[in-house]
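Predict the holo structure. Ligand: glycinamide ribonucleotide.
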Amino acid sequence: MASRTRVAILISGRGSNMQALIEAARAADYPGEVVLVVSSRGDAPGLSVAREAGVATVVVDHVRFRRENRDREAYDAELHHELTKANIGFVCLAGFMRILSDGFVRKWEGRIVNIHPSLLPAFRGLKPQAQALAAGVKVSGCTVHYVVPELDAGPSIAQAEVPVLPDDTEATLSARILEAEHTLYPQALKTALSRL
Ligand code: GAR
């Protein structure tokens, strides 16, 4: 079988999408293998999930960088260093709550994707589920897209729709979208890897 692409997943928190990707990539015919999880926070719950799954983890601690007055470029340089050290061929953002510098994104362009809990181009940026509720839409969902320097603006790879129900709160809508994310992300990553 052709060699599988070495995939890194970047997280900041819970890591449920990360877990879905790790599980999907266990299939022998999946075109990528998850070999590294990088967290921007040392206390991200996803870190222990990754370790239990036998995936190497590293923390590039954004609090430490802030304390040391090191800027976004310095942070992203360390991130890039960790990825190249591990011979990574593809990067998945999965709840990674940092804006990446243009320089970093250009280095990885075509080899970095993100999942966002809205039907982009609707509701970019923070709290897209709350934005969807405030807008009164009847359908929302999630998008896996290539990362480009402009936030949440890269070409879409795949989308999944979910209904917005009349009594939805931000929590109930987020949970319904998250369930769709766990199916969509592994499929979309497979698509993106098959294009390399
Ligand atoms: C997911 O809903 C993901 O789409 C969202 O954060 C959550 C992370 O959950 N990402 C963004 O809003 C990015 N702008 P997880 O840590 O359980 O995968």
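The chain is about 40% helix and 20% strand. The mean pLDDT is 97.
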